[in-house]
Structure formats: C-alpha cells, structure tokens
Design goal:
By secondary structure, this protein is mainly β. The protein is built from 1 helix and 9 strands, in the order H-E-E-E-E-E-E-E-E-E.
C-alpha cells in the first residue's frame, strides 16, 4: 500500500461537528437494484437507522457482520441511492487505500449510541 498524504489540518471544532456513534448491525439486506450496496439496519439504542454501505463485493458473505458493533457517522444528510434512503455512513477502514475494508469496531461491547471522539 502506498501511504496517502495527510489531509489539511482542521480545527477541533470542525472535528467535533461529526456525530460518530457505535451501533449494532441487526440486519444486512441486499438491494436488488445495486451490485455494490447492502442495506444495514442499525440499532443506536434509542432508535434504528437504515444505512447503505458498498460492501456487497468487499465480502464473500456480507451477512457475516450481522450482530457486530461498528462506528457510523449519523449527522450527514440523508442520501438516496439505488432507490433506497441512507440515514448515515458506515465508518470503515481500508477502502480509500485499496485495502480490503474492515469495520471500525470498539475493542469491547459498549452501549449502542455511545459517541466516539
């Protein structure tokens, strides 16, 4: 892997605007209109969200992440993709560098909805 340049410096206030939380993936559903996207139903403790993630080709069995906790960005605008609405973004590791992506997960179980940062 070729190391990417470090992005431009941001302020702590810029970083603090991101709402990154832990959620448990309760369902992993195919989206028929897409050869890349899967629909994740994620429990954040006080609510659930539908989050689309381009993991269909990254994993032999995308459903293997069902039941796992991962990090998600919650305060992005909703986005329509392949006829479905995504209410956040999966925070994964590796995609931007051409490495087979993996989930960003807490080292131990924490309550769903726990904030990162």
């Amino acid at each position: 892997m070729k190391q990417a340049r470090i992005k431009e410096t941001i302020t702590f206030e810029d970083f603090a605007k991101l709402d990154i939380r832990v959620g448990t993936i309760t369902e992993v559903l195919p989206i028929g209109a897409s050869n890349k996207l899967m629909k994740l139903i994620v429990n954040f403790g006080d609510h659930t969200r539908s989050i689309l993630a381009g993991i269909k080709k990254e994993r032999e069995d995308p459903s293997e992440i069902k039941g796992m906790q991962a990090l998600f960005i919650l305060n992005l605008p909703e986005k329509e993709m392949a006829g479905e609405i995504s209410q956040g973004m999966l925070f994964d590791i590796g995609y931007e560098d051409g490495v087979i992506p993996c989930l960003a997960t807490p080292e131990r179980h924490v309550p769903d909805g726990t904030r990162a940062g």
